[in-house]
Amino acid sequence: MKNIYLLILLAIWLVQCSQPPKEEETPKPPNVVFIYADDLGYGDLSCYGSDSIYTPHLDALAAKGIRYTDFYSTSPICSPSRAGLMTGQYPIINGIGPVFFPHSKGGLNPETFTMAEMFKEEGYATACIGKWHLGHEPQFHPLNHGFDQFFGLRYSNDMDWPVPWNPDYKPKQDLALYRDTTIIDQPVYQSTLTQRYTAEAIKFVAKNQEKPFFLYWPHTFPHEPLYVSAEFKGTSKYGLYGDVVQELDNSVGELLKALEDLGLAENTIVVFSSDNGGRVVPQRWGNREPTGSNAPLRGRKQTTFEGGIRVPTIAYGKGYFEGGQVNNIPSIMCDWLPTFASIIDYPLPEDLALNGENLLTLDPNKERDFFFYRMDQLNSVRSGDWKLKLANPDRVRGEPMPHPEDLLFNLAEDIGEQENLALKHPEKVKELKEKMAAFEQSIAPLPPLQK
Fold it and tell me: Residue 140's domain is classified under what CATH number?
């Protein structure tokens, strides 16, 4: 009996040895979800210091991922900031400076290489859910920029409809919600937008759970006018604005739970940020409560003070962004495209001139220069710890914020930009102006400005 058993084991061993070895399955590349709030202030999340807006899901994401303290948008306004993220280039290089309105004819050139096209070429399912705002004419549609599907608004939620602050404005049509190129709601019932975006996002990841996916999720809020669902109305100590932000946080929580339930959480990179700083001034619609906080920064959306361009940014992804770290290395939205290219092993075209670097390999001791435009005018530069803001009236919606002199700040010592050091360090002012001039020369000639 023993001999028979040994013969059976020998036969099994011989069969196994005669079979070719199984090929190891290629691991699925990581999914990427990029969530982009609209006009969220630097100090509007509890993990960034807010004591009146409760954001437990984003706080938890930061606690296991990376929270960035010095992350910059490429612009203090909507359209160019989105162009910088999508292309990895300063928006002015693609002719984008002002915001696009319903009467605008311009947009992001369909020939411009985008993050979505990169993912699509690597076999990713791609979706844009939320506010596009990079041109609403057919040729500028998200489907012409690498996205398989689109669900959302073509531009901001205060466009294409009568507004109290300008009673003479005559909209061409009511604000419309699109699925791809088809209007599904007009006018949009904005109180349910965050909920609908969330349902659509979860539907997308569930549908594509067997393949890699890239979800670009640019929320409509907390851009004004502010709307919130009945479930979150009155839940914040900060009033309506706080209610809106807390609903956005809950939306992140619902997506994270869906990823966990689908078994995708360990292989999905989730990034949360804002397109620019908060408005912070009183609301134009409804009551006069403030619209967020950029504390401890100076300034607001539409200015190149830190409050207009430095934004809350949180990233989590196992093996890439983890450990509950606080990262103080100055970075910019242009960095995400080369970072994701490195992660998915995408060979970037040699002739593609990017303005970003791989966030995973940044040298903390290397001083980087960041250049900031207001509309189509180069307005400020950060170089290492130094920040120069050129003299200008800096008017925002008719509210004068003049500074007729150049402003020089040491951000390591003065994050609130309160002490102007220009007279004490004229050599530094000269050096930074020379850097600005060299940068403008390096990107010339520029394409026509899109309007």
Answer: 3.40.720.10
Task: Spell out, as residue ranges, where the chain has pLDDT lower than 50.
Answer: 1-16, 21-23, 164-165, 398-400
Q: Are residues 383 and 345 in the same domain?
A: no
SS (H, E, C) 297-331: CCCCCCCCCHHHHECCEEEEECCCECCCEEECCCE
405 and 312, same domain (yes or no):
no
What domain range includes position 395?
369-443
Q: Choose, from 57, 128, 133, 334, the residue flagged as catalytic.
A: 133
Name the burial class of residue 318, with classes exposed (0-12), middle (13-18) and buried (19+) by CB atoms within 10 angstroms of its CB: middle
Q: How far apart are CA 58 and CA 152, in angstroms?
A: 23
Would residue 425 show up in a list of annotated catalytic residues for this protein?
Answer: no
Q: Is position 133 annotated as part of the catalytic site?
A: yes
Residues 90 and 163 in one domain: yes
Active-site option among 57, 78, 141, 219: 78
Write out the two tokens for 368.
């980087």
- How does DSSP assign 319-371, residue by residue? TTB-SSEEE-S-EEGGGHHHHHHHHTT----TT---S---GGG--TTS--EEE
Last residue of a domain, one of 361, 394, 419: 361
Asked whether residue 24 is domain-assigned, the answer is no
In a domain, 15, yes or no: no
Question: Do 80 and 45 fall within a single domain?
Answer: yes
Q: How many helices and strands, by DSSP H and E, does the chain display?
A: 9, 16
What does the pLDDT look like over 178-193, one tens digit per residue? 999 999 999 899 999 9
Please check whether residue 2 lies inside any domain of the structure: no
- Looking at residue 403, its pLDDT comes to 82
Q: How far is the CA of 392 from the CAs of 146, 160, 232, 325, 408, in angstroms? A: 39, 31, 41, 38, 13
Measured between alpha carbons, how far is 306 from 436 in angstroms, rounded to an integer?
A: 18
Residues 395 and 261 placed together within one structural domain of the fold: no
pLDDT for res 401: 64
